[in-house]
Specification:
about 140 residues, alpha/beta, Rossmann fold, globular
């Protein structure tokens, strides 16, 4: 099984949140946008700023994120991704979600592979299915 991981899928186990993907880590290959690292680090920083994470928790979460990132093939935010994410989508799609969807589309087309789209965001899952992806959700 080859998956595209939305940041929401990485954040749940990273932050020890309930409802993580049942098939977490049970893939042969995982892809994501380099946006994943930005979104995850912003989430960790929000927890720190809200006073919910202390320095030790921030360090532990950051270390764990680095380990996770090493297992994921990340796609650069290059011209092809920017162009693809700017196109009209079949459903309502937020900006960062459009970048994730565009990244998955480009991977699927370049590699010619069956790529499952993993997300915990219901609206993004609808958009992914409308774009021809099989989705993995909670």
């Amino acid at each position: 099984m080859i998956v595209y991981l939305d940041s929401s899928v990485v954040l749940r186990p990273l932050l020890a949140q309930p409802g993580r993907l049942l098939r977490w880590g049970k893939w042969t290959a995982a892809y994501s946008s380099e946006l994943l690292g930005i979104e995850c680090r912003r989430a960790i920083d929000r927890l720190r700023l809200d006073g919910l994470y202390d320095d030790a928790q921030v360090a532990k979460a950051t270390e764990e994120l680095i380990k996770i990132e090493r297992t994921i093939r990340r796609i650069r935010l290059g011209r092809s991704i920017v162009q693809e994410s700017s196109k009209t989508m079949p459903t309502i799609v937020k900006t960062l979600d459009a970048i994730h969807l565009a990244s998955a589309i480009v991977i699927r087309e370049r590699r010619g592979i069956e790529l499952l789209f993993a997300t915990h965001d219901a609206q993004q899952a609808i958009a992914a299915r409308a774009l021809g992806f099989t989705t993995l959700e909670s």
